[in-house]
Amino acid sequence: MRGERGGGGRAFPRDLVFVCDVVACLCLFCVVGSARAEDSAADLADRVRAKLEANQIDAAVTAAELAVGRYPSSATLNQLLGVALFKKGEDRQARGALQHAIELDPARSESYYDLALVELSERDYSSAVQSLEAYLRIDPRNPEAHLLLGRALHNLNETLPAIEQFRKVLELAPRLPLSHYHLAYAYQSQGQLAAALAEYRKEMQFNPHFCDSYWRAGDIELELGNIPEARRLYERAAGLDAGRFEAHYGLGRVLALQNQLAAAEAELKKALALRPDNVKIHYALAYLYRQMDRKADAQREFELCEQLNARSQARESGIAGGRP
Known about the structure:
Helix 8 runs antiparallel to helix 9 (about 160-170), helix 10 runs antiparallel to helix 11 and helix 12 (about 210-225) packs antiparallel against helix 13 (about 225-240). The radius of gyration is 31 Å and the shape is elongated. By secondary structure, it is mostly helical. Among the domains are: about 50-120, Alpha Horseshoe (Serine Threonine Protein Phosphatase 5, Tetratricopeptide repeat), CATH 1.25.40; about 140-205, Tetratricopeptide repeat domain (Serine Threonine Protein Phosphatase 5, Tetratricopeptide repeat, Alpha Horseshoe). It is built from 17 helices and 2 strands.
């Protein structure tokens, strides 16, 4: 077999030269592939994010699972897997993926935030508080995180710490939607009605299409005896969201106080259609029928109230009795 001359005049077989070229290319490929390993994980993360943004949840879960299988030590990919699973409604698996992401990189704040969202959806408020506090130790100037922490604390009846968090939100982002609303609700639960009303009105200013601020403010105005203003607020709430029974219930009570009995009955029936087992609505109807001198209808509603209360007590007794 004919060969080629090397620099020193020695001949090398052509086959040997070819093999050496292949080995050199493979070595170069390994070096380049190693250098791009982290970039490849980032590319996979971008693909998962793109599917999440396109609301292709099943595809996002599949892509994230494949990516984690390839890069199991990537905190970013485990976090994205948790987000995708959460959006798919698989909360338990989402929690596990996010907890693993935290174990892989405890300094990565996003994993704590996303874990808190899962815990809040499960009403595990104590765990959510811990996750959000961990997040805020890393990123203390995120107003949304302070808002979520305040909500979790309020749900645990820790109202004063919740108010502190809501005030921090307003320091960072005075116009953040729902920040004034949740501060108002916390004040209202403490009996600070004037302060609550002021915050509800600020929420109406910055977030004018949010229904709940209006009917909750209506409740306060009704309690304070400001009937025309309460009516205006309830009407505004019902106009924004006809599916909120609270707006119709409040408006029905106000109309009854204004002696517009037929209109009051219509509003209370709207509320009852939305919440058939709500005892407060049945009581309001019973007293309205008594006011209208419809004794049989009033009696029927009072009897329904007794039945609903008895059913509620039996349910609570059953829960208590069933505990070990």
